[in-house]
Amino acid sequence: QVQLVESGGGLVQAGGSLRLSCAASGRPFSTYAMAWFRQAPGKEREFVAAFSRSVNYTYYADSVKGRFTMSRDNAKNTVYLQMNSLKPEDTAIYYCAHSIALGAPRREGDFGSWGQGTQVTVSS
C-alpha distances in angstroms, 78 versus 22, 96, 124? Predict the structure, then answer.
């Protein structure tokens, strides 16, 4: 089982930036997929970004492409989500998730471990 702890959420004005962090423990980190999802009030949780070790690339939802960047520090077992040009519609709880699936997983069901979430609020 993997334990995930997110941090870095907060309140920011539209156009601003935030960087989220997710620290992982409990299983070798570098051999699986890590992802960010988000859930806005009254909406279903949606995929934001992920890095897959098996295919060695990072992929994004269309809604954040060009604004968000996911990175990782294998030595620290930590992934990051740099969020720039934030919009009010980015307001959500952001979750870090871990998957043992091969390929480029992006469905909730592909991810077996989840963090507790961190709130991001973007004011207009």
Answer: 5, 10, 30
Give the span between the Cα atoms of 22 and 34, in whole angstroms: 10
φ, ψ for residue 119 (rounded to 5)? -80, 130
Cα–Cα dist 6/39, whole Å: 14
pLDDT tens string 2-49: 899 999 999 999 999 999 999 998 875 556 899 999 999 999 999 999
Q: Confirm if 108 and 45 have CB atoms less than 8 A apart.
A: yes
Contacts of 4 (CB under 8 A, 6+ apart): 22, 23, 24, 96, 97, 98, 113, 114, 115
pLDDT tens digit sequence for 37-89? 999 999 999 999 999 988 888 999 999 999 999 999 988 989 999 999 999 99
Which of left, alpha, beta for 81 (phi over 0: left; psi -120 to 50: alpha)? beta
In whole angstroms, what separates CA 80 from the centre of its chain? 7
